[in-house]
Amino acid sequence: xxxxxxxxxxxxxxxxxxxxxxFVGKKFNKLLIVEVIGKxxxxxTFVKALCDCGGFICTGASEIKGGRARSCxxxxxxxLLLKKTKN
Length: 87
Ligand SMILES: [Zn+2]
Fold this sequence. Notes:
By secondary structure, this protein is α+β, with helices and mostly antiparallel strands.
């Protein structure tokens, strides 16, 4: 039983790594993921992404996938500028 469980664990780890590799070349909102940087101590996957504006951002893959990071930060800057213009 112990050996069987170990095998399942190894299989899961490989699947997780494959899923991370799948991120490269995918686009979420304005961000195109160009590189998987690695994982931090909390096992979060970090990626480098190219924004539509030409800027780069390094953030967690889950942030991009979950829509919490939609650009390199330029969307927020544009929103602030629009607000200033309106006022
Ligand atoms: Zn940008």
